[in-house]
Each structure stands twice: as structure tokens, then as C-alpha cells.
Specification:
The protein has 83 residues and is an all-alpha fold. Helices cover 57% and strands 0% of the residues. The chain has one domain.
Length: 83
Amino acid sequence: MSTKTKLTVTIDAEVLPRARDYARSHGVSLSSVVERALREVTADEPSPEEAGAAFVARWRGVLQPSDLDGDPRHEYLARKYLA
């Protein structure tokens, strides 16, 4: 059994009654609702390196290079930002 720790939180006055109603209708405590929400937002959060790798994997082969030779907008932006 894991050790529980008391925590004081400040919650918007409009949210608290709805959260209590949710907990009551699901037969659980408000503490367990909060704990479950915190577990969900902190579960398996990828590191920045993992997130970058996932982005690359998702878009690999989807984006094709465009032919920008002779495009005056590209030449202007290249001079402005790459020079």
C-alpha cells in the first residue's frame, strides 16, 4: 500500500461543486478524482528527445521538398534570414 500525503489546493468556486458531484455520482472520493487526474497528466510523458523522434517518425516521407529555384520570395527570405 502506498503512503498518502495531504495536499491543499485552491480550486475555482465553479469547479468544486461539479467535481464533488462527479465524484459522488461515480462513487469515489474527491481525492481519488484529483489523484487520477494527476496520474493521467503525468503518465508516460515523453522526454523532449522522445517527442522530437515521434514528430520525425510521424512526418517522415510525408513532406516533399519544393522547387524554390527562381522564387523571388524564397530568395528574399534566404538573404534576410540565412545570410
